[in-house]
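Students often ask why we bother predicting the structure of a whole assembly rather than each chain alone. The short answer is interfaces. A chain on its own may look different once its partners are present, and contacts between molecules only exist in the joint model. In this exercise we take two input lines together and write out one structure for the complete complex. Read the inputs first and try to guess which parts will touch.
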Amino acid sequence: MKIILLSGGSGQRLWPLSNGTQAKQFLRLLKSPEGEKESMVQRVVRQIKEAGLLESITVATSMSQADMIANQLGEYGVDIVTEPARRDTFPAIALASAYLQKEKHCRPDEIVVVMPCDPYTETGYFHTIAKMVKAVESNAADLVLMGITPTSPSSKFGYIVPQAGDASAEVQPVNRFVEKPERALAEQLLAEGALWNGGVFAFRLGYITQILEKYVNAPSFTEVRARYQEFPKISFDYEVAERASSVAVVSFTGQWKDLGTWNALTEELPSQTIGNVVLDEQAVNTHVVNELDLPLICVGTRDLVIATSNDGILVADKDHSEDLKKHLAKLGTDSRPMYEERRWGEYKVIDHIEFADGQKVLTKRLCIRAGKNISYQVHHHREEVWTIINGTGQLVLNGEQRNVKPGDVIHIRREQFHAIRAITDLYIIEVQSGDRLTEDDITRYPYTWE
Amino acid sequence: MKIILLSGGSGQRLWPLSNGTQAKQFLRLLKSPEGEKESMVQRVVRQIKEAGLLESITVATSMSQADMIANQLGEYGVDIVTEPARRDTFPAIALASAYLQKEKHCRPDEIVVVMPCDPYTETGYFHTIAKMVKAVESNAADLVLMGITPTSPSSKFGYIVPQAGDASAEVQPVNRFVEKPERALAEQLLAEGALWNGGVFAFRLGYITQILEKYVNAPSFTEVRARYQEFPKISFDYEVAERASSVAVVSFTGQWKDLGTWNALTEELPSQTIGNVVLDEQAVNTHVVNELDLPLICVGTRDLVIATSNDGILVADKDHSEDLKKHLAKLGTDSRPMYEERRWGEYKVIDHIEFADGQKVLTKRLCIRAGKNISYQVHHHREEVWTIINGTGQLVLNGEQRNVKPGDVIHIRREQFHAIRAITDLYIIEVQSGDRLTEDDITRYPYTWE
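Now the answer. The structure tokens for the assembled complex follow.
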């Protein structure tokens, strides 16, 4: 059995903690049973493992999230398939399926489970997945979905309507799908025994590869990926589930939440405050997540969520926290990430300034993890000054390799080839200056470390 | 006529904007009539000037505030007298008086007005000071005080009780002083025509020098200052006013406020938000001062004051903002200023980190104003890496002087002599590393710029 975990979204609704690369599923705000900080995606994979389902996970994601996935799920040895561009869930699942078929050489009768990476659920959810796998194994249907037992006639979800018959059967054939019905219709559907569509699908690999070959029939995964834009921009529900002739549903009753808004997230936080916070005893129903390296004092507040990061500060009444999105537009589109986890470690922007003469200066603190390296590269629009502040490493500057230690200062001018590898965790203060300071001003070259 | 302006206080009550060196009177949160940002001390001196009283101002202050005073009041050509240690208002006024007598060679009959630097008042206040000066000139009394017409029987103030007689007289002899009475007594005092003590005093210089000579009788100002600890720790009210045989009061009726708490300050702010703030239309009675270089979004909040600086973040219900002080103690005493105005310009701490091996690293952005310089100095516990990011200047390193420009990197090791002077405004990223990073790890030497 193979799992395809879908990781997408840019999550503005949890600003300032989430942003373009730091989507909500990567925020380490939850707590593992061992008391460690845990993100939503780490929680889901831990739960998959605890349910005994951890055989092989392929994460289907965007290129911008690949480094974050590698950092957060590295210990589980997951495979990562990146979409060349964002399309929709059908192309993403098709690409990951092509990877399983053509790179991992899985057989057509291999069972595949597709699931989202961010529902906040409990053990029963994963037992339901196991039942779905069994249903596919026993050929109950070509496609088996998870149906969540509704708690209200919500208009926010898609509904799966089972065929009339034995509602207590573990596997029920599906009659039809209804996407986000009005409340009155939703109430009718509940009376019919309809379930919310949880976005979890089980099928045999051959079932999906035969559909994707209608769009892209290529001998290798690389070629399928290169022709990614030939897949239609359509959801898996519309392209596959609603057209399937043999489709069944297995129901799950229990906790199933999207922690995608501040109001929902604060209900599941392990404590009222995270980070350097003094919350006085007069404060009522106030949650504070302070990711800044500054003390935050909160006195006598009520019904607030306060969140800070290097991207900004939010102070919101909990009842109004959903209004956040419309205000983010006012911040302008030129905002850049102030913190990023990368495959080699992480960086934080600690200062940025633009002078009247057009000169821009950006100062970062980088941490390159032991054994990792920054690729051999050249910048065309900026120079960089690196001050090594802790740890040891190997520097390559214009082809010459040497060791570096704290106190060493390296001046990298425009067009100079450079790379650095950490021997121990390596901390650097980097001062960038130039007329254009963007992450994409970089040309990478191969380098073989001695 | 000479003015002695008292500038003291460390002002925790306006944290995080105020701190040890950035006392409340230096916060540039008000607006001048020309629409420029203005601090409380700048406002008072502007008002003194507008009232035609700007002949000569001597600011009596602590050493830690001297640079700030020089920066903020430099254009007015004020003299600064610094106390070698904090004592109380009598020693501070005595020292400034000794300065007027022995350094400025003022005559004993020169009239001196002592006033605090932070009351938020109107024009009438300064007209009252002019009347006080006239009263001393006409020898109505040795000491003339300003009495503020009370608006309530407050227990927070000292009261001046005039002698029974013509309450409408411009100058009334004083019967007695009552310090912070209980409310019932305060009500009685109001019935007697008592006034609040505004802390403004007028007298002839000789009157006060004759009192101070009882404690320190020395030929030069330098020697008076060197013997500063021989003055008793006592307020001017207790040492001088309450013992004076000939004391009168001139009353002032009008706006007179201490903007020393967030609640009081926000009432006088020129706008609901200062800095990079998005305040949504659902927010009610919310004031935000954001001095951080980060966007702050405020959604649906009520009755809040939010203030941010490099020292920290405050989110407080306005009714509870006075509880701030007790929480500050929890932040610990090892906090250092994260932003300071100095005689040569200003700096901001942009990052600080301590490693497991005891190595500390502090990164600052400095701006040295054109024509100013950092003194020739040596550090014993830290090395510094300077990256010049904008402007031009002259560097001295171990006695050798050379010009510097953007892109230049200077590595200053422990025990190396160094100084830098700005030709144009000079911006530097400074990375300090060492086992002890404190402002006092500095030995200064004389240097004559070529």
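Check your guess against this: The CA atoms of residues 279 and 298 of chain B lie 5 Å apart.
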